Structure formats: C-alpha cells, structure tokens
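Troubleshooting log. The previous structure file for this entry was overwritten by mistake, so regenerating from the original sequence record. Sequence copied from the archived sheet and checked twice against the printout by T.R.
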Amino acid sequence: MDVHRFILEHGTLSYLITFAWTFFEGETFVIFAGFAASQGLLAWPLLLVAAWLGSFCGDQSYFWIGRHFGVRLLARQPLWRARVDRALSWLKRFDAWFILTFRFIYGIRNFSSFALGISHVHWRRFLYLNFIAAGLWAAVFVAAGYLCGNALGRFLGEIAERFSEGMLLVFALVLVVAHLLHRVHRHRRRKGEAAVVPPV
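Regenerated output below.
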C-alpha cells in the first residue's frame, strides 16, 4: 500500500484511519503519516492525538477481553498459551516497566494487553499506565516520521542545490569552450582568407 498517496487522496480522513490502524498496531502507517506531516499534508498535533487514542483504545479493548474472556479463549486457543505465559513472566519481572514498554516490542503488543487482562493487575492501574505508554508510543513514531521527513527534505534540498551549482558550472564551461572554438575558427578563417589574397 502506498501510504503517502493514500494520505494525499484522503486528506483529513487520514486521522480517522490512523486511529483505526493504531487500534491494532500500525507503526509503519504512523511513520509515513509523520513523514506526510513534515511536508504539510497533515497536522502533527492531530496526528499525534489520533495515534495516541487509537493505541490506547486498542490495548484497553484487549485488556478487557482478557479480563472477561481470557481463560475461556485460552482453553479454545492453546497456541496462544506460550505468548501469554511469556508476557506474564515479563510482567512478573518488570511490573510497571513492562506495561509502559510492551507495545514497542514487535509482535507481542496484542497478546501482552490480553495477558495483562488475565493477570492480577488492577484495571485502574493498567488504565493510567496504558494511557502514558500509548502517548509515548505515538510521540516516538510520529516524531520519527516527522524528523525523517525533515531530514530527507533537507537532504533533497542540498542535492537540488548541488545539482543547480553543477549545472551552472557546466553551462559556464560550455560557454567558455564555445567562445574558444569560435575564436579558433575565426582565426583559421582569417588565415585562410589571407592565403588566397594575391600579393601586390
């Protein structure tokens, strides 16, 4: 999917799409959206809010599913057990730090919030830690896309400037060479005309 073209075509609808995409994961989309914000196609504060709320609501939903249906779902989906156990072991070792950072670990975000719903973590504690973590996550990926966009813009600007300087130099060299060739040609023509004039 060409995210940049999608943003160009859908404009402000991109904020709603960002919310929906980050409900699941959506790091790549957020980075490209941040890049678009650096080019003035999106407003980065609105993009940040959309990514923040999408990420927060997504993990709150998985936590709620784990809290109310987790045991029954694990009984039906035994393949999930290994990931859930891994998330619970990290929670036991790192506690709040795991809640603040698990969404940065690719591939375990959804299972982690689901596992936290099964765990002993109080819903209110998860709520405020998850809100903080979602904000950090959104800020990191929006900033990454935005800063990369600015850096690329400056890089392309420098390339364009160097290219212009190079073309100016080439043009100047062409003029100098053309002038020299013209002088050589005129000198030869004069010598040729002098050779055909009979002596007096």
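Residues 123-196 form the longest helix (74 residues). Archived copy saved in two places this time.
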